[in-house]
Amino acid sequence: MLLKFPLMMLLAGLVWAVTSLVCVSDARAVADPVDLYVEAMLDADVESLDRLLASNFIFIGSNGHVQDKEHFLQTIAQKKLIVHKASFKNLRESSAGPVRLVTGNGVFTAVSDVPLPSGLMRVSLVSDCTGKRERIVLVQLTPVIPTAQCEDGNCLIR
What are 107-116's pLDDT values in tens digits? Predict the structure, then answer.
């Protein structure tokens, strides 16, 4: 009886690990969600964004404006936000179970019906892999000042 509990716990942990890896490996075998997000934004592909974003998705724009998934997709569909350039580098990743945090620097240039800072940004993206595929839960763009320290992620906020 004493061996059954540790064995069951080990088995449960193994099952959780395998199912987590299946979700991540399936999602990344096709393409990384960060790359898919950038591509869909540049193409204004609302259908791809709808599939890629979690139902509880939040977008925090470079002007601090916060939108949920529904309003974010409407903004893209109605061409109230048109992305001209989005490229991210220096990406760093951290995971905790099925949640993944990706941070980095990049250039974001867009036209919007509200004032929107463009240029060098600090990007933060959170994705969740509790379902069959990885979905993006949060994207935040923060305008930063280009400095030497910004190369390693220690950017000064503009």
Answer: 999 999 888 8
Architecture of domain 4-157: Roll (3.10)
Residue 155 is classified by DSSP as: P
Q: Give the model confidence (pLDDT) of 8-23 as tens digits.
A: 333 334 333 333 444 5
Contacts of 152 (CB under 8 A, 6+ apart): 90
Q: Is 101 helix (H, G, I), strand (E, B) or coil?
A: strand
SS3 124: strand
Q: Are 126 and 137 in contact (CB under 8 A)?
A: yes
State the Cα–Cα distance between residues 124 and 20, nearest whole angstrom.
22
- Find, among 81, 157, 95, the residue nearest to 126 by Cα: 95
Question: At residue 55, what are phi and psi to the nearest 5 degrees?
Answer: -65, -25
